[in-house]
Amino acid sequence: MSARTHLPSGLVTFMFTDIEGSTRMAQMLGPGYRPVLSEHRRLLRRTLSESNGTELFTEGDSFFIAFSDAASAVDACMTAQLALSAHDWPSPESVPKVRMGLHTGLAEAVNGEYASPEVHRAARIAAAAHGGQVLCSAATARYAAPLPPQASLLDLGLHRLRGFDDRERLFQLVAPGLESQFPRPRTDASSHNLPNHVTSFVGRFAERSELTSLTATHRLVTVVGAGGAGKTRLAMEVAGGLVDEYPDGVWFVDVATVTDPGLVAFAIAAVLGLRPEPGRPMSDTLVEYAASRRMLLVLDTCDAQLNASAEIISRLLTGGRGVGVLATSREPFSVPGETVWRIPPLSVDPSPGGGPSDAVALLLDRTREARGGRAVALAESSDMQRVVSRLDGLPLAIELAAARLRVLSAGQLAERLDDVLGTLDAGRDDPEQTYAGNGRWVASQLATVDLTKSPAAPAARRTTTQRHATMQATVTWSYRTLGPRAARLLRWLAVFSGPVDLPTVEWLLDDDPLDPLAVLVDKSMIQAEPHASGTTYRMLDPIRAYAARRLVDAGEEQAARDRHVAWSLHALQKAHLGTDGRPVTLSLYALDPLADELRAALRWTATGGSARAGLQIAGGLDQWWRERGLAREGRLWLFRLYGRIAETGESIPEAELAAAYHMHSLHAGADGEFAEELRFSQRAEGAARRAGDAGLLARVLAGRGAPLVDMGQYTEAERACREVIDWAGTSGASGDALLAVYTLAELLWQRGALDDAADVLGAARLVEASRAAERGRRSVDFLLGMVALGRGDLVAAHDHLVVALRSRMSYGYHSRACDAISAIAVRCALGGDHRTAARLFGAAQATRSQLRSAPGIYSPYWAERQAAVRVILGDATFDEAYAEGGTLTLEEAAEEALAVDHPDMAVGSPRFAA
Asked: Which CATH entry fits the domain spanning 205-342: 2.60.120.20, 3.40.50.300, 3.90.1720.10, 3.30.43.10?
């Protein structure tokens, strides 16, 4: 008590100490704890006696001491820590880790004790320290000079002490022999450790809202997606908006920096300011700490240590009700209570308000940065859209593309994206060196990471950056976690250019793919997209490019692509046949979803596969190319296939060559290349004659009239048509001469021989109905409608043309639908509805221009009738109605044409004359 009568007053430095984890140590050491505690007290008291400190009380493992000057207090702490660390303790587990806190302030002793908030502040500073650490307030730092030799005070920044409203600047005593690496102080210094980003967050308004809502209502939400999909950035953006909802903070941990599964709990603990307790699993310490707190953990890249992450997350969630986890991973944890949210690519569709899509907005923003703040020219907008569409809206790919736009225009970049990886990764480090999975480079980097520090340490940040340095490194991170079956499936799926369904995958592998497919979906290498008709599976283009490289490296490209070609032929066959295996009316709509796959198959047949198979695929697309305005593309593929034949010497049957040349002739005619049309028509005839197939020869000869018509040789064309019709009749191949019948009817209609044209067509109706490939066009009805228009018979014209237009739209014959709409426009004009006629003329011409259809035999007739309507309406009214029609889609124009009243319903109709 005598000491208490001499307690310092005025400017007093208070010191608190205790042993970190003393309760755990006592349990572990049992009877051996008391000698350790006694020796700890002896060492501290000896130090205090030498430094003029006054011991106010000792309770258990704690000391409360007062000093009359700050320098003595700092020196006492340093001496005590050095004595504790140098002492020979019975075992490593029995070494006491003592934390010490100092604060200096004005205080007066009353009745042998201090009643001052400065005492409580000192106690809170000690509680913020870790075992072996000495912390002091700014006041102590100010009055502590001179410091002991070689000692210094490290500024740890501003921290909010528990129970105090203001923030205190804390300093750590650093000196030779003292431990220097500690987690952040255990204070309320900050309610989060979310990294600050130097780039803006662009778009994803709907995704942010949805993920925020899920995180608020579910305790474990896993954001799953492919590498580079933007999972981390979105999760941190959402977490940043939830800081105020978690009184115990929002804490970010990058699991990618953890090299061993057993260290996941340590990485989380380090962020929370926890240190290992002797003889106790770190996970137990972590769960105990979190049990009474309400906080959100943001665990990033958990796929780096998936099982270990899942285990510690499960323990945290069951250990307390206030902990929430927002995780990012390339695959889900598959633990109870998990809500899996798959991040979609950035939208490539324009925003509802007419602004750019999220993907384009991101590319514009990053390109502006890459070009020194200069805005992107409006002329590049369409090419920007091409770029983001080619990259499937993948944020990392867009970021890398923006870097390329330092030296390329958007158009140049778009042209180079056939090689996605080569273009985006150009000029960057070797992807294998930047791989951040199991590679030795990363292991060597992580070996230097001290997990007692924040995972935001420089070495850890380098690892995260390197993981996304190139697209190849990003995908390799996931690829190397795949088993043999899943890796093979990924490689083989690279031959598809678009989504596939489960039967297609089964067909490709000739095996049950469900298990490896599930693995790829879980690891976000494949996107599963549910539909009412079933789930389809899609690979993002950058991942497809990577898988295609691996396919070549594995020596499997020839087999996989040949299998894809076989599937393409099988799919074409299915489009022509019903479920009973019999031919059905050909619908070009059935070919639309196959187009990209068939192009991919054609590319292979023209470069590394069988040209014969390529000609068969081209034959299946014959009418589709012309009806979609792609006749030129069809010609180019055929030229490539001819070159492949010449290169390999592959033997092609004459019949198949004849069919290809005949198709080529029709494409050339549709594309306005009339000399080429005639040349390939002649080649087709030669090959057909060598093949000795009468039906084939009839089909080829039936097309001979078309090039003659296109070159204006109408008399020769009519003679050629009559000759082939007669020859086909005597040869038993009348049905194969249908094209000659159509051409002859057109020629007869053109020169006004309407009765003859009607007779020819009447005989052809049953033939057309029997041929699945032709009947959807309803050419007979269309031509009979044209004959009726020539006769002025509006009732018959209406009936035939409506049937033709409805069928052509139903089966996808868009180019021919334009002719039917133009014919109905004439029928409206003849019926007195000139404004509707002008609108339909405008609509038909707009679609014809989009399809790049060459003017046909009806072109002068349409022009003549349009001129007549213009005269009646006047230029202004006609142009207004024509322009209105030009804004209609083909579907809208067809709907309007089909809605035209039947002539019998018109005022003055003979039906109502009575």
From this structure: 3.40.50.300
| Paired residues of 174 in beta bridges | 152
Q: Residue 389: pLDDT band by 50, 70, 90 thresholds?
A: confident
Residue whose pair of structure tokens reads 């192009």 in the numeric block: 599
How do residues 471-515 score in pLDDT, each as one tens digit? 677 777 778 878 888 888 989 998 998 888 888 888 887 777 888
Yes or no: say if 584 and 810 are a contact pair by the CB < 8 Å rule. Answer: no
Peptide bond into 146 cis (omega under 30): yes
One-letter amino acid of 648: T
Instruction: Give me 613's structure tokens.
Output: 């198979």
C-alpha 295/C-alpha 804 separation (Å) is: 68
- Reported for 641-650, long-range contacts at CB under 8 A and 24+ positions apart, including other chains, are 641/602, 641/605, 641/606, 641/611, 641/614, 641/615, 642/611, 643/606, 644/605, 644/606, 644/607, 644/611, 644/614, 645/611, 648/611, 650/610, 650/611, 650/612
Q: What is the pLDDT of residues 577-614, one digit of tens each?
A: 877 778 888 899 999 999 989 999 999 999 999 999 99
Strands 168-174, 323-329: parallel, antiparallel or unpaired by DSSP? unpaired
Averaged confidence pLDDT in the chain = 83
Question: Could you check whether 3-174 and 205-342 share the same CATH topology?
Answer: no
The CA-based angle 618-621-624, given to 5 degrees, is 145
> What dotted CATH number matches 484-555?
1.10.10.10
Identify the three-state secondary structure at position 136: strand
The token duo for 13 is 């430095």
Distance CA 107, CA 126 (A): 18
- State the helix-helix crossing angle for 381-390 and 395-404, rounded to 10 degrees: 130
DSSP string, 339-382: EEEEPPPPP-SPPTTS---HHHHHHHHHHHHHTTTPPPPGGGHH
| CATH code for the part of the protein at 776-914 | 1.25.40
First-to-final CA distance of the chain = 131
User: Out of 3.90.76.10, 3.40.50.980, 1.10.3720.10, 3.30.70.1230, which CATH number does the structure's domain 3-174 have?
Assistant: 3.30.70.1230
Average pLDDT for 95-100: 90
Distance of CA 583 to the CA centre of its chain: 39
SS3 623: helix
| DSSP per residue, 430-495 | -HHHH--SS-HHHHHHHTT--TTS-TTSHHHHHHHHHHTSSHHHHHHHHHTT--HHHHHHHHHHTT
pLDDT-derived band at 442 (thresholds 50, 70, 90) equals very low
> How wide is the angle at C-alpha 366 spanned by C-alphas 364 and 371, nearest 5°?
90
Is residue 426 packed enough to be buried (19+ CB in 10 Å), middle (13-18) or exposed (0-12)? middle
DSSP E strand stretches across 816-869: none
Hey, where are the domains in the chain?
3-174, 205-342, 358-427, 484-555, 556-652, 776-914
Measured in residues, the chain has a length of: 914
CB distance 157 to 170 below 8 Å: yes
Torsion over CA: 796, 798, 802, 808 (sign): positive
Contact assessment for residue 125 and residue 146, using Cβ atoms and an 8 Å cutoff = no
Residues 6+ apart with CB under 8 A from 275: 20, 21, 97, 130, 131, 182, 183, 269, 452
If phi > 0 it is left, if psi is from -120 to 50 it is alpha, else beta; for residue 260 that is beta
Angle at 240 (CA atoms; ends 236, 242), nearest 5 degrees: 120
